[in-house]
Automatic annotation (TrEMBL), chain A:
<dbReference type="Pfam" id="PF05331">
    <property type="entry name" value="DUF742"/>
</dbReference>
<protein>
    <recommendedName>
        <fullName>DUF742 domain-containing protein</fullName>
    </recommendedName>
</protein>
<dbReference type="InterPro" id="IPR007995">
    <property type="entry name" value="DUF742"/>
</dbReference>
TrEMBL record, chain B:
<dbReference type="InterPro" id="IPR052705">
    <property type="entry name" value="Gliding_Motility_GTPase"/>
</dbReference>
<keyword id="KW-0342">GTP-binding</keyword>
<comment type="similarity">
    <text>Belongs to the GPN-loop GTPase family.</text>
</comment>
<dbReference type="InterPro" id="IPR004130">
    <property type="entry name" value="Gpn"/>
</dbReference>
<protein>
    <recommendedName>
        <fullName>ATP-binding protein</fullName>
    </recommendedName>
</protein>
<keyword id="KW-0378">Hydrolase</keyword>
<dbReference type="InterPro" id="IPR027417">
    <property type="entry name" value="P-loop_NTPase"/>
</dbReference>
<dbReference type="GO" id="GO:0016787">
    <property type="term" value="F:hydrolase activity"/>
</dbReference>
<dbReference type="Pfam" id="PF03029">
    <property type="entry name" value="ATP_bind_1"/>
</dbReference>
Amino acid sequence: MSGPEWLDDEAGPVVRPFALTRGRARSSADDMDVIAMVTATGERRPQGLVLGPEQERILHISRRAVSVADIASDLDLPLGVVRVLLGDLKDQGLISVRAPAAMATPRASERVLKEVINGLRAL
Amino acid sequence: MDFGPSDEPVALKILIAGGFGVGKTTLVGAVSEIRPLRTEEVLSDRGIGIDDLGGVEGKTTTTVAMDFGRITIREGLVVYLFGTPGQERFWFMWDELSYGALGAVVLADTRRLTDCFPSVDYFEQRGTPFIVAVNCFDGAARYEPEDVRIALDLDPDVPVLNCDVRLRSSAKTVLITLVEHALKKITTSRY
């Protein structure tokens, strides 16, 4: 798609980011961590539901678990906007969101951190 | 709370903090593929008093660009690196990013050591495990890590090391030092 020449990437987004969310900056996904993992549930869409192209892309990307940060980067949209879109999809039952594991259990974290250290050494 | 069964994917966060131009992006890029991430945040009252809104009273959102990188340790174990915006006015971003973070690397430039004071204060107050990595730019005056420790008034257990974040091996050492430090904090707090 080629727009008029005077409108290149330098001009910035043509549509203000929160226009995609119909102006909503808050959603049920406000506290969704940047590394929370999103997975499409594969549930059938509620009848009459029309999804925007961005949400269709999210459902496509999240066929395998993917982080909120990765989705925002893939869509080249601000995190706040992506959270609103994700909140809608979650409310519709179309995605599941898993919060990152907390570092609270010493034994489990110890095991994982040791694995990370070894993994970094092997990089 | 637990990491869950071993077959569940685990994602961990490491923050890369420090002043503007200190090499945060370079560090992330040395060990992972950099991906751009934008946030368009609604200015909350946390930003008021920090953000000088004089003349832009109508502005309710602000755009912050940051880098992040992803290191896959193995299938189902991924470490995310976030280069956090250095300026204090972005502390509202830090609150979000540092929640549940494994730890933080504070990158320091000895020519502008005061730039990393806010980061050090922030992680000390939150109890986030952190280390200080002194990025040795060409021609930058080199100080012994111990001198940096004294200048920053760091606790004796906070690791301080020199590095050159352009080098993958050096960047790896920085990250390993942080994870070892975080591990030590977990094992010592148990007793």
